[in-house]
Amino acid sequence: MPWTERPKPPAVTGSGALRLGTAEHAVTYALSANPAHLRRGPKGIRGSITAESEVAAEAFRYGDGYLVLAEGAEFKVKVLAHSTGSPTAYIELWKT
């Protein structure tokens, strides 16, 4: 039987706000690493956001936005993927 790697649990989860243009939406997020250790540059952190399915679809259409964490830190977000009707969108974020 081949060995398969188990999926790693997200390193950081929480709630925050997703800012798309002038609109701000409440979301929960799951990130693969702690954003406090993120530095400016081309390497971002991948993760996902969960909100109402309409918000996730709008985020995918916008493509770019900002994720504001509960503690006030703000990160630039690129929405990478979303399935129609799903409340989850997959993201990559960078330090602003």
Summarize the structure.
The protein has one helix spanning 53-62, and strands at 12-20, 23-31, 45-50, 64-69, 74-82, 88-95.
Write the layout of secondary structure elements.
Layout: E1 12-20, E2 23-31, E3 45-50, H1 53-62, E4 64-69, E5 74-82, E6 88-95
Antiparallel strand pairs: 1-2, 1-4, 2-3, 3-6, 4-5, 5-6
Count of distinct structural domains: 1
The biggest sheet, with number of strands, parallel, antiparallel or mixed sense and barrel status, is:
6 strands, antiparallel, barrel
Number of strands: 6
Average residue-wise pLDDT: 88
User: Could you name the CATH topology?
Assistant: Thrombin, subunit H
Order of helices and strands: EEEHEEE
Spans of at least 5 consecutive residues whose pLDDT stays below 50 are none
Structural class: mainly beta
**SS element count, helices:** 1
The name of the CATH architecture is Beta Barrel
Descriptive overview:
The chain has about 100 residues and is mostly beta strands. It is built from one helix and six strands, in the order βββαβββ. It has one helix at about 55-60; strands at about 10-20, 25-30, 45-50, 65-70, 75-80, 90-95. It has a six-stranded antiparallel beta barrel with strand order 1-2-3-6-5-4. The longest helix is centred in the middle third of the chain and has 10 residues, at about 55-60. The chain is globular.
